[in-house]
Amino acid sequence: MSDRPKLYHCADARSLRPLWALEELGIAHDLVTLPFPPRFREREFLEINPIGTVPYFVHGNVEMTESSAICQYLVETHGPTPLDVPPGSPERPAFLNWLYFSDATLTFPQTIVLRYASLEPRDRRLPQAVEDYAKWFAGRLRKVETALEGRDWLVADRFTIADICVGYGVFLASLLPELCERLTPNARAYLKRLEARPAFQAAREKQGEPDFP
Ligand SMILES: N[C@@H](CCC(=O)N[C@@H](CS)C(=O)NCC(=O)O)C(=O)O
After folding, report:
1. For the packed helices 161-175 and 127-147, what is the interaxial angle rounded to 10 degrees?
2. pTM of the entire structure?
């Protein structure tokens, strides 16, 4: 495939997962950073991605909209790499579970908190939803906290895209006061290790100024 991958992104949104993976893998790419939410603030984007979400990823005739799936695609197309845990590895089921867990289970309650604590106009904010889903997030974070007991990374004793995908959720929590206060000790130490990675720093530098929360 000859085309450079192209990633549509909003600063610090879930598209940070594939942007960070691109940086970790050293893949030359084109980055388009949009204002958040692009559905309202960049109407033409709907002609490119009708659901209006980021990430939106294009590579030749490949089009993808799921942040964790794009990370998986990148390691599979640009590997072999230690960031992957390939089929046949004993840790593969746990690895896949973290990839799916990252968005469907961990980030889902975070989006409710973000939306009803700060994105909606003041008269549409829902403190009860914020409190309930912050608690829900904390319950789900317990799985991460336990997995990191005595370990630096989630699976296979090394940094993988599972850490990018789940680690993004921990990073996002640190940006939201209602969730930051619920971050537990192992998760906080994990976040420090993640933020120290040059590829994470490069991704955040390239994306420009965040305009949310
Ligand atoms: N499950 C998708 C969710 C994508 C998604 O909802 N992205 C958010 C950004 S964090 C978005 O674009 N929201 C703006 C909107 O829905 O208008 C993924 O993991 O990438």
Report:
1. 140
2. 0.97
